Amino acid sequence: MWLLLTFSILLTSAGAQDGEKVLRDEECAPHSQPWQVALFERGRFNCGASLISPQWVVSAAHCQSRFMRMLLGEHNLRKRDGPEQLQAVSRVIPHPSHEARSHRQDVMLLKLARPARLTRQVRLVALPRRCPRAGEACVVSGWGLVSDDEPRNRGSPEPQVSLPDTLHCANISIISTDSCNKEYPGRLMNTMVCAGVEGGGTNSCEGDSGGPLVCGGVLQGIVSWGDVPCDTTTKPGVYTKVCSYLEWIRETMRRN
């Protein structure tokens, strides 16, 4: 299991667990992922999420906390440069069958207290019309752990791992179910999808929990879990497969 290591660890610890993020990536072009949402718990960054309608955000169920707020249009967690929209959460709806230990049904909907104002920096991400295909190119984004590939000190070959202020992006691709089953025997379900780089390298890692895996402009995955420690593993990250939850997402939004 992965322990969620968020930006808030620089300030104080947060309660969510089993998250992941992006190593050996680069800072996103500001607002190039305008659906990216930052979730906060009592003012501390906690998880990522994605804006799927003017009044709804989707994230991972294991990101649920008691005092949630969200920030849309964010890039640098340390600065406010104008396009951000701070929102209260009026409804928190994790999937009713979520199981933390197995990561089963790791999906959650959050309703904004008021509709988001859609701008160039705040936009919706499309829900999928089909499930992802092996080899499909994707982007994962978040504010979790990154590696700068520089040694920690002169005597150590290990890169420096840190938590960034700015949103980071990594180009990865969908890994076939057969390949991923070899990495995680007996742990994958058909509601999960794996993504990374064959042979290791750029991948998701601690801190990106709940954030988007976007393939061709479509939300295909929600950052869920992976191998520990993520900065040394060659295994792919595992994501909640959004196409498996379209009916639940739409019905939940309609009823609430």
TrEMBL record:
Matching SUPFAM superfamilies: Trypsin-like serine proteases (SSF50494)
Signal peptide residues on this chain, from the entry's feature table: 1-16
GO BP terms: proteolysis
Keywords of the record: Disulfide bond, Hydrolase, Protease, Serine protease, Signal
InterPro entries: Peptidase_S1_PA, Peptidase_S1_PA_chymotrypsin, Peptidase_S1A, Trypsin_dom, TRYPSIN_HIS, TRYPSIN_SER
Domain Peptidase S1: 22-254
Pfam family, any one: Trypsin
GO cellular component, one term: secretory granule
GO MF annotation, one: serine-type endopeptidase activity
Recorded superkingdom: Eukaryota
Recorded family membership: Belongs to the peptidase S1 family. Snake venom subfamily.
Name the record gives this protein: Kallikrein related peptidase 15
Species of the source: Loxodonta africana
